[in-house]
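Researcher: Next sequence.
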Amino acid sequence: MSRVVHYINQFFAGVGGEDAAGTTPTTRPGSVGPGRKLQQLLGDDHEVVATVFCGDDHAAGDPGAVAEIVQLIAEAEPDLVVAGPAFTSGRYGLACGRVAAAVAGSGIPVVASMHPDNPGLDEATPAPVVASGEVARTMGLSLDRLAAAVA
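Model: Next structure:
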């Protein structure tokens, strides 16, 4: 069974919106928010063992945030990391892209998900990016695409 860590922002972790955008990197065991559906789609061959999340402002504005996030991810000993989907959300996309690139640089397989127009797309290199829908209401389709890319 493959151990998966899911990276999302504070909104999708259920912590709050803009009022919680300064949330520091945090880990929760298992799947959280959209990660629950992702877990269902991935099936029995993959287990979301942890969800790491961070506020959009903190992730985009604190130079050490990505390193903190990657450290939390590494502590969960994943076989795979999934970041997003970030849709066209700018700060969230930048965070997903930067986290994906840093995770890839550490040697852990990673897949990010965001819309092709997201400003974070270029930040993800060399990590692969699966196209998501434009907005959160396309979460179902976006998770289907992401799970298909992982499986």
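Model: Strands lie at 2-9, 26-29, 46-54, 80-83, 110-114, 129-131. The longest helix spans residues 90-105.
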